[in-house]
Amino acid sequence: DRAFSWISKQSARASVHDAAAVEEMSQQFDAMRIWIPRPYVCLFNSLCLIRFMLRRGVSGEVVFGVRARPFAAHCWVEASGLILDAGGEDCSTFAQIARV
Q1: pTM over 0.90
Q2: What are the pLDDT digits (tens) for 12-38?
Q3: I need a labelling partner for 28 at 20 to 30 A (CA). Which of 47, 48, 86, 99 fits?
Q4: For 1-100, where are the E strands, in sequence order?
Q5: How high is the pLDDT of residue 2?
Q6: What span, in angstroms and rounded, lies between the C-alpha atoms of 86 and 27?
Q7: Which residues contact 83 (CB under 8 A, 6 or more apart)?
Q8: Which pLDDT belongs to residue 61?
Q9: Distance in angstroms (rounded) separating the CA atoms of residues 84 and 62
Q10: CA 19, CA 30: separation in Å to the nearest integer?
């Protein structure tokens, strides 16, 4: 809850950037991700990425989705029309249930 509250407050101060800048920032995060001593988990990774972006003044949203068969839940970050997901999931197969 505290993380989502922080995201909401920081998002009000951030601005939308063009897709090329967002893609470059996502690649920078992916390159630095090896220094986070945790295995890939979509929620943890999405929260880290959105924090990375917001600290640099770039807005984005954490998106939560589910699918029925086979049941799965997943989250990812979207910004400037791009899906930023290092997990390799096909995010279009998930029905969006929340955005923060």
Answers
A1: no
A2: 787 877 888 899 999 999 999 889 888
A3: 99
A4: 61-67, 72-79, 82-84, 95-99
A5: 86
A6: 10
A7: 76, 77, 91
A8: 92
A9: 10
A10: 16
